[in-house]
Design a protein that fits this description.
This protein has 351 residues and is α/β, with parallel strands linked by helices. The protein is 37% helix and 16% strand. The protein has 11 helices and 13 strands. The longest helix has 16 residues. The termini are far apart.
């Protein structure tokens, strides 16, 4: 790691980041600052209190995850910065007012804040309402920041289409896990939470289709059963019914996920939308095969070996078959055979 030191102090506002890829990237960022002895003032979700290490060089503060506490914190945040600081709003929402004392940057990583409104309608009422509010906040206060940073060309194009007057730059980052070249098990890994946009059900339906051809590849999922109990129960039910080879290892921290990467030759990633697709970046860096939708966000960050239509379990299953170099026989009858089938199987039989 490079050992850099900078005069500018970072003030990182991440009080609404505690899950998913955003949390992983936040950990990478804080670890880099700590290892480089770079002072920073950091505001985190209080739910991360037991998950974060004891940083020596970072001034870490925790914000209670309630609407009133976060609103109060957001309004007071500029007063906690000093002239020359650089404010990094890591949780998608711009500052509520512009300041001449320091520059501010918004790290935008949530696709659902800038996508077509129809794409968020499938969420639960509570999540839908939260997204509507955050979309309004983003649009309302977008001019209060000096710059937006995004992690893919797709995000940049979409943000400019929604907010054409803002400054947007591309700045993807990740930390490549260090793994050894151990013997890898022949299996498919989907490292992801299980929101509806992650498309787990079509992936499972694809595995059901594969089972009908007497194929049972090993699929590894990382779904937290406490957060998504109904989906996990359904997966367990259909796995037992069709004898599917599916393992759900639950939520994994970064270290355990790195170990899983090291024993998985292929990442399959059927998600409909991603602002960045961090698992694709990590899989690419590790030289893993990638099977993913033929969508812009995938091509922005990776070179999949096979692609598919995420709306079609058949297409997903066929991509897996191609990856395994399995060609199912294509049945085509001659006219004579076709007539024979008609007459023998569907015609009247002589007694």
């Amino acid at each position: 790691m490079e050992n850099n030191s900078y005069d500018t102090r970072l003030v990182i506002e991440a009080s609404n980041v505690h899950l998913g890829g955003g949390f992983v990237l936040l950990r990478y960022l804080l670890e880099s600052l700590e290892q480089n002895s770079q002072p920073a003032l950091v505001f985190l979700d209080a739910r991360l209190y037991k998950k974060m290490p004891n940083y020596i060089h970072l001034d870490v503060n925790f914000v209670t995850p309630s609407i009133i506490s976060r609103l109060r914190h957001y309004l007071r945040l500029p007063s906690k910065a000093i002239k020359g600081d650089l404010l990094l709003y890591f949780g998608n929402i711009p500052p509520f007012r512009r300041s001449s004392k320091f520059k501010s940057i918004v790290f935008l990583q949530n696709w659902f804040l800038i996508c077509d409104r129809n794409q968020i309608s499938a969420h639960s009422p509570l999540i839908y309402l939260r997204l509507i509010v955050e979309r309004w906040l983003l649009a309302r206060f977008s001019q209060n920041t000096d710059l937006f940073l995004v992690q893919s060309d797709s995000m940049k194009r979409q943000l400019k289409s929604v907010l054409p007057n803002v400054n947007v730059e591309l700045a993807p980052f990740s930390q490549v896990p260090l793994v050894t070249e151990d013997e890898r098990v022949d299996r498919y890994l989907y490292p992801s939470r299980a929101d509806k946009s992650k498309n787990h059900r079509n992936l499972i339906y694809a595995w059901i289709e594969l089972s009908k051809h007497k194929l049972f590849p090993h699929l590894i999922l990382t779904i937290d059963p406490k957060v998504y109990p109904s989906l996990v129960n359904w997966i367990n039910e259909v796995s037992a019914r069709y004898n599917l080879n599916i393992s759900n290892v639950g939520f994994l921290d970064t270290h355990d996920l790195d170990a899983l990467y090291s024993t998985s030759p292929c990442v399959i990633f059927p998600s409909y939308f991603e602002s960045y697709g961090l698992p694709l970046v990590e899989a690419s860096a590790l030289g893993l095969d990638i099977i993913a939708p033929e969508l812009d966000y995938v091509r922005d960050v990776s070179f999949p070996v096979q692609t598919f239509d995420p709306n079609s379990p058949t297409s997903i299953a066929r991509a897996v078959l191609r990856h395994r170099k399995i060609n199912l026989p294509l049945i085509t009858y001659s006219p004579d055979q076709f007539i024979n089938i008609l007459l023998t199987q569907y015609g009247d039989k002589n007694e």
